[in-house]
Specification:
With 224 residues, this protein is α/β, with parallel strands linked by helices. It has one domain: Metallo-beta-lactamase, Chain A (4-Layer Sandwich), CATH 3.60.15. It has six helices and 14 strands. A seven-stranded mixed β-sheet has the order 1-2-3-4-5-6-7. A five-stranded mixed β-sheet has the order 8-9-10-11-14, with helices on one face. Helix 5 crosses helix 6.
């Protein structure tokens, strides 16, 4: 676990990232790793802030096994989970991802490895405010993929819309995305609309502690 700025931590789960944020006294876990990352996340929360029972809120950038995997396995976690509306039924188990989409078929095939959260799950819409974070619908990687940005913390949680590769952001590629045209559209739109932020925290790769919005804008320019 590494501190990105005061009150914000990167939990490196080995190939995938989770984040822990003290959002004005509200302890927020963002994404939850793979099913076998339970001990990593538990230890990180313990080191930074106490116990899993101290977590007040869980934000999910999207439904994927490597972002929801530990939710039903974190003993003591008793906090509402928030996820983009179009991914909501996948997280709750009310509906399975579609076989007809190549990414959906993979999600469906590995879905048996995870269980729905035991606590409440709430759908999130574009523009919703969750503490200091604003939700920005950014579809493409998944239908309900959501980016969370806190101006107060100067932090953007980017999920899998982009990933860090050799010191730069690159778009989510075809083989793990529902729709790469939508991915590119989301990147372009957010690069224009998001406020300036220092910390840029992707779901995969190394987060940037400084000049995050500039790094994200560089990725958008590379799409042209």
């Amino acid at each position: 676990m590494s501190e990105l700025r005061e009150g914000a931590w990167w939990i490196d789960c080995g190939g995938v990232n989770a984040y822990l944020v003290d959002d004005g006294g509200t302890l927020t876990l963002i994404d939850a790793g793979l099913p076998w990352n339970r001990k990593t996340i538990q230890q990180a929360v313990s080191d930074a802030a106490g116990s899993l029972a101290d977590i007040d809120r869980v934000l999910l950038t999207h439904y994927d096994i490597d972002h929801v995997g530990t939710l039903a396995k974190l003993d003591g976690l008793d906090a509402p989970v928030y996820v983009g509306r179009d991914d909501y039924p996948f997280v709750t188990g009310e509906r399975s991802p579609p076989w007809r989409n190549h990414k959906g078929a993979v999600q469906r095939a590995v879905g048996w490895l995870t269980d729905p959260p035991t606590g409440p799950v709430e759908p999130v819409d574009d523009g919703d405010e969750l503490g200091s974070f604003t939700a920005h619908h950014a579809p493409g990687h998944t239908p309900g993929h959501t980016v969370y940005v806190s101006e107060a913390l100067s932090t953007a949680i980017l999920g899998d819309l982009v990933r860090e590769n050799e010191g730069a952001f690159v778009p989510s590629p075809y083989f793990i995305s529902y729709d790469t045209t939508a991915v590119r559209s989301s990147i372009r739109s957010l690069a224009e609309d998001l406020p300036t932020f220092e910390v840029a925290a992707p779901g995969h790769g190394v987060p940037f502690k400084r000049n995050g919005s500039e790094r994200f804008a560089d990725c958008a320019r590379e799409l042209d």
